[in-house]
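**User:**
If convenient, please work through this fold.
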Amino acid sequence: MRRRRWIIAGAVIGTLGLSAVGVAVAAPAVAAVACPQCYGLSSLGDGVYAEAADGTSEDAYRRMIAAANQRVASFYGGRTSSPRVLICATTDCYHRIGGGAEKGRALRTWALMLSPAGADETIAAHELAHTELRQRLGDAIGQVPYWFNEGLAVLVSGDARYLRAEGEADRCRMPYDEAVRVAEQSRDQATERTYMQAACVVSRWAGARGGPAAVSTLIDDLRAGKSFPDVVRI
């Protein structure tokens, strides 16, 4: 079984063209995506795989992912990405498939993994938002700073921890002059507060420009060769 996992991982890694460092970090996750059953996950249909869990039905997982998919589709007016979804009911499972301390993780455009703490609609929608943005931008994804990517995922998912309810004139949960400092941070300085800052800035930017339509325009502009600082001024 172990040999089979690494054969699969090697094939997928070769296809994706991952670097040597990327291979070392990503191999368990890549192998798990290629063969979820090899890691104890069962197919629930439509590209969703889950570890059996006491108290959580397969139907509940299906409804959760369907609702998360709908949230992303509603924001973008449809979907272009269709990643596999791996859901773990135990921490051991999540670590086994390559997860860490995070609640969920998007693997480029091809998959997302959810930990026991992240198996809910909001976290699933957040990670699906990452895959959708990357799919729509293609190579232009490199133009987007991490904080904007995270802030947009919070906006799409409607995460109430970091944003006020939809419909409120100002969804920021902190003063904007504090939130905007997120643009000065590097990725390795990110904390939970970073998500609140990023969500505030992105929601204010999008809200002033027509909401989801502003994001669609941003994607078109970046794909056309414009630079992120020229398109997004905060």
User: Anything to note?
Assistant: The chain has two domains: 2-8+25-137, 144-231.
